[in-house]
Design a protein that fits this description.
229 residues; 64% helix; mainly alpha
């Protein structure tokens, strides 16, 4: 029997089933590598201005300059995602695809008494495992935020000390001291505000605008007052 050219031939099943994750993490890796290359070039240009020797790319990957730039952005992203997941559990926006319906608390499917043999084991176990699992998504995102915050602080301290040494020969400071500087919080706030602006904009625009076939949008035919996906 001849094999027809269908979706299975064009795209393997494993790739089709995980295409969104592959696309997102593939783009992440590409942009992270490009960030490191352009950051390395920028950093060497800054070193040249002070008559310092350029650094190699592998050495740059271990530098405060690179660590600070990476974790500074991860920090804001995961704060926004963790905060968004947590806030949408309790707050609503009438008409938004990013909100649960007005007046809804837990969904019927959130009731552990409806657990089946296919439900995750913490749901079937009950007790503390269930309590943790019911909040595990926001917990995981906020823990990644906390780790990124520490990475930003340590990388920022190293970058600040290197910059101060080049500019004025000032002695290095510790991470706790850098935490108290306006420089650290300026870096954080400029990212935090933009993340919450982006999410807030999506929440409001999804009331009136549509993207067909996207789960982040209400159906094209849905009324503006319709709340949820």
């Amino acid at each position: 029997m001849p094999v027809s050219v269908d979706e299975e031939v064009v795209m393997p099943r494993w790739l089709r089933d995980h295409a969104l994750t592959v696309a997102m993490f593939g783009a992440f890796l590409v942009f992270l590598v490009l960030q490191s290359v352009f950051g390395w070039q920028t950093h060497n240009e800054e070193l040249a201005e002070f008559g310092a020797a350029p650094t190699s790319w592998p050495a740059y990957l271990r530098s405060g300059h690179f660590m600070e730039s990476v974790f500074e952005n991860w920090e804001s992203e995961f704060l926004q995602m963790g905060g968004y997941v947590l806030l949408t559990a309790y707050l609503v926006q009438r008409g938004s695809a990013e909100s649960k319906p007005v007046g809804q608390t837990d969904r019927p499917e959130d009731d552990e008494r409806r657990a089946t043999a296919d439900s995750p084991w913490p749901v079937r176990a009950g007790g503390l495992p269930l309590v943790v699992y019911r909040n595990s998504l926001s917990i995981a995102l906020l823990l990644i935020f906390a780790g990124s915050f520490v990475g930003h602080l340590l990388g920022g301290t190293a970058a600040y000390n290197e910059q101060q040494a080049l500019q004025s020969g000032a002695p290095p400071i510790g991470a706790w001291e850098f935490l108290g500087t306006s420089e650290f919080w300026f870096q954080s706030m400029q990212n935090w505000q933009s993340e919450f602006l982006a999410v807030g904009t999506l929440i409001v625009l999804s009331i009136f605008l549509r993207q067909h076939a996207s789960p982040e949008s209400k159906p094209v035919t849905a009324a503006h007052a319709h709340t949820g996906d």
